[in-house]
Write a structure and sequence with these properties.
two-stranded antiparallel ribbon, about 210 residues, about 45% helix, globular, single chain, mainly alpha
C-alpha cells in the first residue's frame, strides 16, 4: 500500500470510529435522552385525571354557585328577556327600561351611579352599572342548576370565556361584589362572598362538572 492509500485508509477508519462513538453516546431518538422517540411512540403527555371525589365535590359546590346566580341580586340583571328586573320578587324594571335603552341615549348609569342611593328603595349603584350585551345575554332567570352549568361551559354563549375566566370575573368585578352590599331593603345572596369565590375556584379546578340533574 503506497503512502497516499495508507493515509486515506487511516482517515476512513478514524471517521468510522468517531461515528461509532457518537452513536454510542446518543440515545435512540436524538440527543434529548430518547424523549423525542418516546413521545412519538406514546403521543403527547396526557393531563392527570381529576379525582372523581373532587369532581363530585365540585358538583356540590355548583349547587351553591347556582343558588347565588339565581338569587335576585344576580338574576335581576340576567333576565330571560330584554328588560332588567327589580326587587326581590323580580318585577320588570319601571319606566320601560330595557337592553335597548342605551341605544336611545339612556344609559344605565344615568340613574345607577357609582354608589347606592342613600335611601331605601333608591337606585343601587356601582361604577359602570350595566346589563350583559344582547349578543351574550348570559340568561340566569328561569334556569336550573344544570342549565346554568351547561351555559357557563359553552364558549358560544360565554363569548369564548372559560370557567377559569369566570373565576377571575367573580374575584375582581365590582358589579359582582356589589351583590353583597346591595343597600337597604334588598336581600343578599345566600352564602358569603368569599365562600362563593372559593366554590367557583374549586368547581373550575375540578373541570367545571355539571350536576347530574
Amino acid at each position: 500500500m503506497n503512502r497516499a492509500n495508507y493515509l486515506g485508509f487511516g482517515l476512513i477508519v478514524g471517521l468510522a470510529a468517531m461515528g461509532g462513538a457518537v452513536m454510542a453516546k446518543t440515545p435512540e431518538g436524538g440527543g434529548d435522552g430518547g424523549k423525542s422517540g418516546e413521545a412519538k411512540r406514546h403521543g403527547p403527555a396526557k393531563k392527570p385525571a381529576i379525582d372523581p371525589e373532587a369532581r363530585e365535590a365540585a358538583r356540590r359546590d355548583f349547587a351553591d354557585i347556582a343558588a347565588v346566580l339565581l338569587s335576585p341580586r344576580c338574576r335581576n340583571c340576567h333576565p330571560a328577556g330584554d328588560r332588567p328586573l327589580q326587587r326581590d320578587d323580580g318585577v320588570p324594571h319601571r319606566m320601560n327600561i330595557s337592553r335597548r335603552s342605551p341605544e336611545a341615549g339612556l344609559e344605565c348609569t344615568a340613574c345607577h351611579r357609582e354608589r347606592n342611593a342613600p335611601f331605601a328603595g333608591g337606585p343601587p349603584g356601582v361604577p359602570d352599572w350595566h346589563m350583559p350585551s344582547k349578543e351574550l345575554p348570559m340568561v340566569f332567570e328561569g334556569r336550573g342548576p344544570r342549565a346554568l352549568c351547561e351555559q357557563l361551559n359553552d364558549p358560544d354563549r360565554t363569548g369564548g370565556r372559560s370557567p377559569g375566566d369566570l373565576v377571575e370575573h367573580v374575584r375582581h368585578d365590582r358589579l359582582v361584589a356589589w351583590a353583597w352590599q346591595p343597600g337597604a331593603g334588598r336581600s343578599k345572596p345566600p352564602i358569603p362572598f368569599d365562600a362563593f369565590v372559593k366554590a367557583v375556584e374549586r368547581w373550575a379546578a375540578a373541570g367545571a362538572p355539571c350536576p347530574h340533574e
